[in-house]
Specification:
The complex is a heterodimer of chains A (365) and B (375).
Chain A (H helix, E strand, L loop, with lengths): L1 H17 L1 H21 L7 E7 L4 H11 L4 E4 L8 H6 L5 E5 L3 H6 L4 E8 L3 H22 L6 E8 L6 H32 L1 H7 L4 H30 L8 H25 L3 H17 L12 H7 L3 H15 L7 H26 L1
Parallel strand pairs in A: 1-2, 1-3
Antiparallel strand pairs in A: 3-4
Helix pairs in contact in A: 1-9, 2-7, 2-9, 3-6, 7-9, 7-10, 7-11, 7-13, 9-10, 10-13, 10-14, 13-14
Chain B lengths: L1 H16 L1 H20 L8 E7 L4 H12 L3 E2 L10 H7 L4 E5 L3 H9 L8 E8 L3 H22 L9 E8 L6 H32 L1 H7 L4 H31 L7 H25 L3 H19 L11 H6 L4 H13 L5 H30 L1
Helix pairs in contact in B: 1-9, 2-7, 2-9, 7-9, 7-10, 7-11, 7-13, 9-10, 10-11, 10-13, 10-14, 13-14
The chains are: A alpha/beta (365), B alpha/beta (375).
């Protein structure tokens, strides 16, 4: 068993690394993903392009514009903007919001009368529009309080826990670990097995005196190792480059990742039993990955989804692993804190893995 | 010309014979529309917050009611057992805990009476900062609600007149996320089918050795390429139409502009994406590598750097520069312009020109690479 197993593992590694492009990809993938997710994923709404049409041109209106510039929320274009270009700029996606200050602003402010200013927004990006208009309302509120020397007697002191600098990188990188581990292992395992089918070499392997269980384990093991390597590269880069904190126990993370791999490798194996070409396997694995990614809570909190969608997320193993990785890295969660996530993963792993192995035996036998 | 047709027919048979792949190629865009529409909810509404009220006065209840009656916040669904705010945040599903300190009721009645010298009073709130978008929204909304509460308390003689903001939201007045995602999704799906599938189909001929057979046939490599990609142009366009149809049925996403204009720009975009697929296939030998290449070098950057979800203006400068070579970036401006804003040809022409320039460069590199490989 042992010699045959290690022989197979060696064969598989030779096959993986024979292709120079594969080696490049193995290092490039975590780097590209980290750079993209680390720098790009930023749902913070900032630098909203705001065109200001100032018909008042007084020190008051300029004061209001200056107030809107504080805090990097708005990227303001002002000066001589022709008003007839207002909508064209939206259609060209050159601006996101437009503020129209009426000419009687200063006069009415002095007379202590109510004055109306106009705010137009390109609503296509619903989230930015909602938050952006919210900012502007707060800014105007502050401006008016300041103008009439009114001190707000009530305020809130905020205390942000777990991620006090409010960096999305800290939130995203643990998520990338979960994604990489899932996509890579499911896709590569299923394609590697189907490749032997497609090339006809699976039959050759089956007639050798290796048991089909050994064969399977030998084929799967290298991808488990590869997944772990990718995970470690991602984590090390994330810690060194982005300075993300790692509060919890690394050993616990490795252990639970191994548990999770049971599910993803089982899934890859399962897909290989229902497909006959690499293209199909890739397609099915891609399909599964997108479903898993979208319902895992990676981009948006599961609590924000409609109730029936939240029920669907329970059948997604990645959902539990996402909580585990984020919990260990950011909050220092321990084994007992994560038990509600660990139980489902054990069940998923045991069911999917044993089902797939049985199916593979059936097919192979 | 008839030679190209034969290659195209051969490729079409390949596609049709493989019913499982075809099914996925058709179901995938539908599933993505479904998931992006329902699972990705960027609207930060109904954020779960919990309250620890040490004051227990009429006024504190009034404020708490204001929080829960707004669309921004909702009550925790699981019972809250802990009494310590930090403990509540750790153990319940609440994203934030509002703390009303004792003396709140007294402070509020002073404001109500319009007293001249008010001592400022601070409420407390602890927030789970793991999701920083949510955390920013919680702070924004809470500040807004408290400010509004103060304004409602002030007696008329103290009240400041204030500025009224007349808001008008164009193109997507109900602020539906689906209207934002769907046009971008068409761009991503078109790219996925074109770049991923063509790169794999050509790599497959190489891997199984049938590429040599094709090359010994009396057709030029250019004809082989063209023949192989034609079926995928139709498959890609079919998928694009499916996304738009399902978006209309499920989420009522509008289609304001000209369909013909969209088709025209769509063809240019698909041709650009196909050239990427050909370029990849000329660089790799196996399907596995082609797949990984296509995903990490094209699909992922297109999702991340095109403005599909994340605003390009918020990225660091080097990524903003990199986004210039992402075709999806231009097509997303085009398709959002046509679908939501009814933009016409003149307004979008510049984006089209960028796409054509990109396509020309890609085809040039790909054709050059492909020929040298074949020799």
């Amino acid at each position: 068993m042992n010699r045959a197993f290690w022989g197979l593992v060696k064969k598989e590694f030779i096959q993986i690394f024979r292709d120079i492009n594969m080696i490049r990809l193995i290092f490039a993938i975590p780097v590209i993903q980290l750079l993209l997710f680390g720098y790009v994923v930023n749902l913070e709404v900032k630098k909203i392009r705001l065109d200001v049409y100032d018909f008042n041109q007084s020190s008051y209106s300029r004061e209001l514009i200056r107030a809107s510039q504080v805090g990097d929320y708005f990227n303001i274009a002002t000066g001589k903007l022709p008003i007839f270009r207002l909508e064209e700029n939206f259609q060209r996606s050159k601006s996101d919001m437009a503020l129209i200050i009426p000419h009687q602003l200063s006069e009415k402010l002095i007379k202590k009368e109510k004055v109306t200013i106009g705010l137009l927004a390109d609503g296509s990006d619903a989230n930015s529009t909602a938050i952006g208009t919210g900012y502007l309302v707060l800014i105007v509120q502050k401006f008016i309080n300041h103008f009439y020397h009114f001190k707000n007697p009530l305020n809130i002191k905020f205390n942000v826990l777990y991620n006090p600098e409010a960096k999305s990188v800290y939130f995203m990188i643990p998520g990338i670990v979960a994604i990489l581990l899932t996509m890579l292992t499911v896709m590569l395992t299923s394609m590697a097995i189907v490749r032997e089918k497609e090339g006809g070499t699976l039959e050759q392997l089956l007639v050798t005196p290796i048991s089909s269980t050994t064969l399977l384990l030998g084929k799967i093991f290298p991808f488990a190792v590869l997944g772990m390597i990718e995970m470690i590269i991602t984590l090390v880069l994330g810690i060194l480059w982005f300075g993300i904190p790692f509060v919890g126990s690394p050993m616990l993370l490795v252990g639970l990742s191994a548990l999770y791999l049971l599910t993803t490798l089982g899934m890859g194996l399962f897909l290989s039993t229902v497909t006959s070409t690499q293209q199909q396997a890739m397609f099915f694995a891609w399909f599964f990955s997108i479903f898993a990614l979208m319902t895992s809570g990676f981009f948006t909190p599961i609590a924000n989804m409609p109730q029936w969608m939240q029920y669907i997320t329970y059948i997604n193993p990645m959902r539990y692993f996402m909580v585990i990785v984020r919990g260990i890295m950011m909050k220092g969660a321990g084994f007992y804190d994560l038990l509600p996530q660990i139980y489902p993963l054990i069940i998923f792993g045991a069911v999917i893995f044993s089902f797939s192995v049985l199916r593979f035996h059936e097919r192979a036998g | 010309m008839y030679k190209i047709r034969f290659i195209a027919l051969k490729e079409l048979y390949h596609i049709l014979r493989d019913a499982r792949s075809l099914t996925i190629a058709i179901i995938m865009p539908i599933m993505m529309t479904f998931l992006y529409g329902y699972a990705v909810n960027l609207d930060v509404n109904n954020i779960v917050i919990s309250v620890v009220d040490y004051d227990q006065s009429f006024e504190s209840h009034e404020l708490i009611d204001r929080f829960y009656e707004s669309t921004y916040f909702s009550k925790p669904q699981t019972p809250v057992n802990a009494t310590n705010p930090k403990e509540i945040l750790r153990t319940s599903d609440a994203n934030a805990v509002l703390i009303v300190k004792p003396g709140f009721g007294k402070a509020v009645s002073e404001i109500r009476r319009g007293e001249k010298k008010l001592k400022p009073f601070s409420l407390g709130m602890i927030i789970d900062g793991s999701d920083n978008n949510l955390s920013a929204a919680v702070q924004n909304y809470s500040n807004f609600l408290v400010n509004e509460y103060v304004q409602s308390l002030l007696p008329p003689e103290v009240k400041v007149p204030g500025i009224n903001i007349s808001r008008e939201i164009l193109y997507n007045p109900d602020l539906k996320s689906a209207n934002f995602f769907v046009p971008g999704l068409v761009a991503i799906v078109l790219l996925m089918i074109s770049a991923l599938l063509t790169s794999i189909t050509i790599a497959r001929e190489k891997e199984t050795g049938t590429m040599e057979q094709l090359l010994t046939a009396p057709v030029s490599s250019f004809q082989i390429l063209l023949g192989k990609i034609i079926p995928y142009i139709f498959l890609a366009l079919l998928d694009g139409v499916l996304v738009l149809m399902f978006a209309k049925i499920l989420f009522d996403v509008p289609f304001v502009g000209s369909k013909l204009l969209l088709l025209g720009f769509g063809m240019i975009y698909v041709a650009t994406a196909l050239s990427i697929g050909i370029l990849i296939s000329s660089l790799v030998k196996t399907q596995q590598v082609a797949m990984m290449f296509a995903i990490t070098a094209t699909v992922l950057p297109s999702v991340m750097l095109s403005g599909f979800i994340f605003a390009i203006r918020n990225m660091p400068v080097f990524l903003q520069l990199l986004s210039v070579i992402i075709p999806a970036k231009y097509f997303i401006v085009i398709i959002r312009g046509i679908l939501l804003k009814g933009a016409g040809f003149k307004i979008l022409a510049l984006q089209g020109i960028y796409l054509i320039i990109l396509m020309a460069i890609l085809i040039f590199i790909a054709a050059k690479n492909f020929k040298t490989r074949v020799d």
